[in-house]
Specification:
The protein has about 120 residues and is mainly α. Helices cover about 70% and strands about 0% of the residues. The longest helix is centred in the middle third of the chain and has 29 residues.
Length: about 120
């Protein structure tokens, strides 16, 4: 990426951020955005570790099933969830329940915004 393109991208991203935050104070907006970015990072990291841990048992959702793969696994393997979460705490040191994963939150945001249209 050229220096000019990088500067243009930066300007575009700042303009989008300004539109998104509206009348909200920039510092408050930053706090929200950093929280979202951190959640996204933790969620992606957790899903990657879960996929590795579950191996061939990690579900591949059908096209019409918009649930996170872990939500499907949790629903199909309720008796194994405590052992799985214990193992994940050992490996990545935290657990994110499927309904709190970034993909679940993003799906909820998309479907709720569509209902209002």
């Amino acid at each position: 990426m050229t220096d000019h393109n990088q500067k243009q991208l930066g300007k575009t991203l700042w303009a989008i951020a300004d539109q998104l935050r509206g009348a909200m104070d920039a510092d408050d907006f930053r706090d929200y955005m950093l929280s979202f970015l951190f959640l996204r990072y933790l969620s992606d990291n957790y899903e990657t570790a879960a996929k590795k841990e579950l191996g061939k048992d990690y579900p591949k959702p059908k096209a019409e099933d918009r649930r996170a793969p872990l939500a499907i696994w949790y629903a199909d393997n309720a008796a194994d969830v405590p052992a799985f979460e214990k193992q994940m705490r050992r490996k990545v040191h935290y657990v994110i329940e499927p309904q709190h994963l970034w993909s679940s939150i993003a799906h909820m945001a998309r479907t709720r915004s569509m209902r209002g249209c």
